[in-house]
Amino acid sequence: MTGEVVALPNIQPDRLQFIKTETPKAPPPSQSLMFGHTFTDHMLTIPWSSLEGWGVPKIEPYGPLSLEPSCTVLHYAQTIFEGMKAYRDEHGKVTLFRPDMNMKRMNTSAARIALPTFNGDAFLDLIKKLIHAERDWIPREPGHSLYIRPTMIGTQKFIGVAPPSEALLFVICSPVGPYYPDGFKPIALYGTTEYIRAAPGGTGAYKLGVNYAPGVMPQKQAAKMGYAQNLWLHGPEHYLTEVGTMNMFVVLKKNDGTIELVTPPLDGMILPGVTRDSVLALARGHASGSYKISDLPDKLVVSERPITMVEIQEAEASGALVELFGSGTAAVISPVNRIGYLGKDIHIPTGEDGMGPVSRPIWTELVGRQMGTIPSDWSVPVTA
Ligand SMILES: *Cc1c(COP(=O)(O)O)cnc(C)c1O
Fold first, then answer.
1. CATH level 3 topology of 187-371
2. Atom of ligand 1 nearest to the CA of 327
3. CA distances from 134 to 65, 68, 76, 172, 179 (A)
4. For burial by CB atoms within 10 Å, which of 81, 122, 136, 249 has the most?
């Protein structure tokens, strides 16, 4: 047996055990939903160990996990997560939006903190089975969805900093309403020069639990000053990076009337958002003439390039600043109307209905593709 490499089992959907809850709950009225507070009846769990690989997947009643106080996640933040949504169209058809990207990103996150990687197709297969089982929890009202939270934690009983020999992959689901139930409400940002979210060579480009707790206190401070979120800046040049936990886009108008859509490049400090990628793909398709998005300006260029606060200030002064917005799964598009920076406020136009001339048509297209009113390869059916 010396030198023989035995491949350990990957995730095996055909071994799924389904343990149904004996106390099913009734989903609460959709109007009462608050983001991330309500969970469905079941969860998916898949254990892993370095000796046996991926174990038996279970869909079981939602409930507490049993963890030893010594386990690695509780000490060294060995935890990663994803965020995706399942939508239900008016005919009852359930879909996910570009879930392959979430599977890829979760594997990238796992590898970054030495958690085990997995077969993304097999995991997605099991996630679909969970969503199918919980399909009555997907609210029917427009703009509502089921938020899916895949998570992986290190569970080895060991107070040492090392790759864990045991891990748990699990998925919970939460019915959610629209982020902006009463129409788009632009938010104000605090351009913080005291704190950072990410640094070169760090972990900003991965969806690791460790990236989020340090942002809570600065967010509270920003809120005290009347700003909804931090605008995270980088370096002495104050490059714009991200908005709270969203990617960031700026729209500028050039002298010849061309509209430029700018977002910072994936330089290792930016989380590669699925929404970011979708906004870029739609805008590039339109700019190249291969796909027409109605009402989006025709003279459009799309740039992934660094942009500094000085450039934002100059654009405000010259009237070239058209709009600024955040993008992410939870809110889709979040318009920004103000940035507090070095003791002054920069004012950003938001258009008459809360959204600007680039974000509005892109949002309409994106939401249409997510909800199934616009046919798209990005929309993936969930069946039994
Ligand atoms: C999740 C996340 C995003 C947005 O990613 P989506 O895939 O579009 O939801 C952006 N920035 C940070 C820091 C995030 O955690």
1. D-amino Acid Aminotransferase; Chain A, domain 2 (3.20.10)
2. 8
3. 20, 30, 33, 10, 22
4. 249
